[in-house]
Amino acid sequence: AEQSATSVSKGESFTDTIHTVENYSDILVIRHPGEGTARLAAKESHLPVLNAGDGSNQHPSQTLLDLYTIQKDLGKIEGIKMAFIGDLKYSRTVHSLIRALMKLNVTDFTLVAPESLRLQKYFMSNDEPGKYQFKETDDIEEAIKNCDVLYMTRIQRERFPDLVEYEKVKDSYVLTASMLKEAKEHARVLHPLPRVREIAYDVDKTKHAGYFPQMKNGVIIRQAILLKHLGVQL
After folding, report:
1. Which structural domains are found in the chain, ordered by start?
2. pLDDT digits (tens, 9 = 90+) for 57-74
């Protein structure tokens, strides 16, 4: 439920809300604008807590369905070349996925973003100097030619305190079908959705479009997550 429809709007604390809701359920699934709220809920509750997105921090379940989609479409994850395009500063899906890919031996990343929306250095940090290559660029054409997966993200208006700054960058990268003529034969275009302007509708009809099957995979993956935490044998 939206916070406005709960006792939070009456002044109830977040921790009291958690203790109240856990009496009605077997699992807590939390999407919250505050970063770190899922972690706080997990400390407070005796129930399993699933993070469905905490602000611009992390989105673990999206990462699991993204990994499943890549494995299903390409037949592998290790060794692929990834491109992340758009809002890399505020995109929680990018933050979660890039860390997971690093753990799965993906080492080649192309990061395409306006300077004001580039990925924070924290998400590129690691304990193996020289293993990972992060190429920051504003050239989307180069990413299209070289990468196996193009992970598009929308420029998120709701993350901008200044609307003027949003207007400056909102149309920075728009992927079209004609641009994909330079892509690898097997390349896939993914997107956590919703899209706004960043993927033209003519891309939908190309062999590279993978975002709608990706969305369908989310149902399967999230069902599996829920069943696992309910103790159901899969």
Report:
1. 3-55 (no CATH), 60-216 (3.40.50.1370)
2. 999 999 999 999 999 999
Distance (Å, rounded) from C-alpha 217 to C-alpha 199? 20
What are the phi and psi torsion angles at 110 (to 5°)? -110, 125
Residue with tokens 């990706």: 214
- What is the torsional sign of CA 139, 128, 67, 29? negative
Q: What angle do CA 232, 63, 213 make, to 5 degrees?
A: 85
Residues 101 and 116: their CA atoms lie apart, in Å, by 24
Question: Mean of the per-residue pLDDT values for the chain?
Answer: 92
As a whole number of angstroms, the distance between CA 216 and CA 221 comes to 9
The residues, any chain, with a CB within 8 Å of residue 44's CB and separated by 6 or more, are 15, 18, 19
- 28: DSSP letter: E
Contact 98, 71 (CB under 8 A): no
Residue 233, CA distances (Å) to 218, 224, 226 in order: 19, 10, 11
pLDDT, one tens digit per residue, over 149-188 is 999 999 877 777 777 777 777 778 899 999 999 999 999 9
The 3-class SS string of 46-103 reads CCCEEEEEECCCCCHHHHHHHHHHHHHHHCCCCCCEEEEECCCCCCHHHHHHHHHHHH
